[in-house]
Amino acid sequence: MSNTNTQIKLAARPTGLPGPECWKIDSSDRPTPEDGEVLLQILQISLDPAMRGWMNEARSYVPPVRINQVMRALTLSRVIESKSSELSVGDLVTGSQGAQEYCVAKPSELTRVDPNLAEPSKYLSVLGMTGMTAYFGLFDVGLPKAEDVVVVSGAAGAVGQIVGQLAKIHGCKTIGIAGGPEKCKYLTDEIGFDHAIDYKSQNVAKEIRRHAKKGLDVYFDNVGGEILEAALFNLNRGARIVICGAISQYNTTDVQGPRNYLSLLVNRARMEGMVVFDYADRYGEAVQKMAGWLKEGKLKSREDIVKGKVTDFPDTLLKLFSGDNFGKLILEIAPL
Amino acid sequence: MSNTNTQIKLAARPTGLPGPECWKIDSSDRPTPEDGEVLLQILQISLDPAMRGWMNEARSYVPPVRINQVMRALTLSRVIESKSSELSVGDLVTGSQGAQEYCVAKPSELTRVDPNLAEPSKYLSVLGMTGMTAYFGLFDVGLPKAEDVVVVSGAAGAVGQIVGQLAKIHGCKTIGIAGGPEKCKYLTDEIGFDHAIDYKSQNVAKEIRRHAKKGLDVYFDNVGGEILEAALFNLNRGARIVICGAISQYNTTDVQGPRNYLSLLVNRARMEGMVVFDYADRYGEAVQKMAGWLKEGKLKSREDIVKGKVTDFPDTLLKLFSGDNFGKLILEIAPL
Fold first, then answer.
1. A317 contacts A14 by C-beta, under 8 angstroms
2. How confident is residue A60, by pLDDT bands cut at 50, 70 and 90?
């Protein structure tokens, strides 16, 4: 155990992709827990598209990360010192400890990981915020009925892979959009999507039409831009579009609005945004269900675990925006 | 009564504003009713923004008007010959008889006008499709609660003027957006909007923020473009945007999508399209309520009645797109 705590702090707000100028690597003393607190060693750091939004100054659903503040990040940690009766040394927990090596926290800020329910890294992916986003976005905002056609963009990404499998479990026909043959093969051969569309080599609008003659019923959007427009061109009457993210637009100042949004009018369709935190009081319900499906083998979750040091955080984050990332991106900075 | 029937037919599909090249004036013999039919003299022709969409070739919620077909239009007519036991000579009816002077129809295609309930032209405005659009768009899609802030664009237009008054009757705070001081004065002084914003001389986003500190709860959009973006910048949590139309975008091939649509995500808000025909089985309920409010003086409806001939149809239609139109635009081609 080191006596210093290396931290990644926000040095400047990015325009476009967050390059090295946005970050400052800092070292401080490893903190000491007070009564009622625990000391955590951070093992895994979750990399999420939402981070790009937290780096902006704009008002959003959470306050922006401040300049010189440790970058906000969800983490998987091990308790290495406990001054709380609620947690013991060796316990694994998740929480929002940020991009650093050590952190002091109160048990009320943490969620205990049950290694018997699923392997720990799943708590940063399918059983964590990512899975919760997929579950509540699909079921509570997308409102799919059995037999509905559900189209998912970023389908090989962290959230998208779960959405497609949940829709399939629900009895829907599923179409996933991803970049490149490897990801598309994964969608259909590994995790049961009915069809995959490769946006790098295929005309997305035409392919949706080919697989969904009457149009799609639910479109779960992680990417925005032209792929959102392709979906809007293919709505069935009363379709629901879930706006979960827009990764194609996060690093541009010249955001492209969906030019064919009037398709919502013609098709009496709806486009609705969601933020997972609103469903916090129902996470337990979703975790139980998802863990059950994981055990039954009905639900798979692919993690893209990069092993490195906390100082690899800035470069690892960029993988999210290059299209290279495949599954839930996690930076592992200490062995589990 | 003339023996010829002058008709306005679609000659070519417009790009941009529908100029004279889009129209053909035709004359045919006045038609003769068969058994079970009536002969109608058309008195008033409704001019509606939706007409611009019907002139396009694109798939929409109704089939496009075909080339050489009489232009589709809602009408107020008088029965001048009856071969049906259901309607008598002199009865007033509304229906979709098109831009022409005479028409044969079956009673099942017509709605009888009750002159005791309201003056006949109201059946083309507040008690017709226009009013139905306002009623179901606001209440069924906008889902306003008492005290909600309801913002309406095109607020001095046919639908907008009704939406604002219905929201007020419902106990909401109402903000209308219109062009020019005369219309704005009408909104606040004549029909009870709490605030009016003149988009020609004011910064719409700033003015919405000034009047709705926490953001708007319902935005009823008739115009699209920059005004839709101004509304998106000012959403309260869980806001509902009703997409009723987008008159600023109908005559351009370079449609502007709302660049800040991710405000839907941040604010867990919804944007939903509506088409009034879906509510046909509930028109009766709405007409009864609206007629009651009209009689009580709680609801006013301004009609912009142009007196002329059926051949004035093409020029009159253009008034909708120039911003000159004020209230429900109607072309009257024969005295009531």
1. no
2. confident
Mean pLDDT of chain A: 95
Q: Residue type for B157, please?
A: G
Average of per-residue pLDDT across A55-59: 87
**Nearest-CA distance from B230 to chain A in Å?**
14
Q: Which of B249, B256, B271 sits opposite A264 (nearest CB)?
A: B271
Q: Give a three-class secondary structure readout of chain A.
A: CCCEEEEEEECCCCCCCCCHHHEEEEEEECCCCCCCCEEEEEEEEECCCHHHHHCCCCCCCCCCCCCCCECCCCEEEEEEEECCCCCCCCCEEEECCCCECEEEECHHHCEECCCCCCCHHHHHCCCCHHHHHHHHHHHHHHCCCCCCEEEECCCCEHHHHHHHHHHHHCCCEEEEEECCHHHHHHHHHHCCCCEEEECCCCCHHHHHHHHCCCCEEEEEECCCHHHHHHHHCCEEEEEEEEECCCHHHCCCCCCCCCCCCCHHHHCCCEEEECCHHHHHHHHHHHHHHHHHHHHHCCCCCCEEEEECCHHHHHHHHHHHHHCCCCEEEEEECCCC
Examine the pLDDT at A1 and tell me if it is beyond 80. Answer: no
Predicted TM-score (pTM) of the model is 0.93
What pLDDT is stored for residue A181 in this prediction? 97
How does DSSP classify residue B257?
-
Query: Of the candidates B56, B164, B167, B110, which has an alpha carbon nearest to the alpha carbon of residue A262?
Result: B56
Q: How far apart are CA B199 and CA B79, in angstroms?
A: 43
* pLDDT for A62 beyond 90: no
Find where tokens 């009536």 sit: B38
Q: How far apart are CA A228 and CA A177, in angstroms?
A: 11
Query: What is the predicted pLDDT for the residue at B116?
Result: 87
Rounded CA-CA distance A155/A151 in Å is 9
* B280–chain A Cβ distance below 8 A for any pair: no
Q: Which of A261, A264, A275, A276 to mutate to test the interface with B (most CBs of B within 10 A)?
A: A261
Alpha carbon of B249: minimum distance to chain A alpha carbons (Å): 10
Those of residues 298-317 in A touching chain B at CB distance below 8 A are none
Mean pLDDT, to the nearest integer, of A305-321? 96
Q: What is the mean pLDDT of each run of 10 residues along chain B (336 residues)?
A: 94 94 96 97 96 88 94 98 97 97 97 91 95 98 98 96 98 98 97 98 98 98 96 98 91 86 96 95 94 94 96 96 89 96
Tokens of residue A126, six digits: 């399918």
Tokens of A305: 């675990």
In this prediction, residue A260 carries a pLDDT of: 94
C-beta atoms of B272 and A269 within 8 A? yes
